[in-house]
């Protein structure tokens, strides 16, 4: 009987389904917002758009405690990298992989429920330092064209590099909710000095992008990847309390800074 019950629980975990499919949206974004203390410093920008379906197969959606919504990145067939502010204090996380339209049950989607996750030991919710967490799937996911792991960086990004954050976050400040479909925007990396002049809490474990022209991450993008060349260089962390379209930088946890921690916890290397 115990063996049958254990098997049943595994099956439920693997086949839990997309909790948002066909239902009114009630999930909130836990994204931290910081009041800017300095002026905007802007440079060039490339416009945002709907992503080609399944062009970012490591991107996952996280439904936390049936209350909050975040993104994340598959870094192996059993580990998801996300933000600490998404997982902090949670009881369970529904992980939806292989999705493009997060409001539908697509044939490409695989859903699992995890209760095995943890934040960085030195996560500080006041200073927003060490904003990363790991989610372990209850069983390894089978990779296919729509579900793949992303590589970790073997070197860091530089100021001026073009990077592409992805997510289902709000497409504008006036939007009533998140985007149904996965979106992307290509933006340049700015210096930590310029970013810190705006927020005052930007350290070496953070990488920032230019939010000029209203192109940036927004509520609902938390925990999602900062992509470049088939690798993830950042985890969506915090933005401006003034709004997503005001031109202020957006901040990400710098993955390269935490490679040793990720390897220690998961065994995953670049």
UniProtKB/TrEMBL annotation:
Residue stretches making up the Peptidase S1 domain: 45-267
Gene Ontology molecular function, alphabetical: serine-type endopeptidase activity
A Pfam family: Trypsin
Signal peptide as annotated in the record: 1-17
GO biological process: collagen catabolic process; proteolysis
Cited Gene3D superfamilies: Trypsin-like serine proteases (2.40.10.10)
PROSITE patterns in the cross-refs: TRYPSIN_DOM, TRYPSIN_HIS, TRYPSIN_SER
InterPro entries given in the database record: Peptidase_S1_PA, Peptidase_S1_PA_chymotrypsin, Peptidase_S1A, Trypsin_dom, TRYPSIN_HIS, TRYPSIN_SER
Keywords: Collagen degradation, Disulfide bond, Hydrolase, Protease, Serine protease, Signal
SMART domains: Tryp_SPc (SM00020)
UniProt xrefs under PANTHER family: ACROSIN-RELATED (PTHR24252), HYALIN (PTHR24252:SF7)
Name of protein: Chymotrypsin
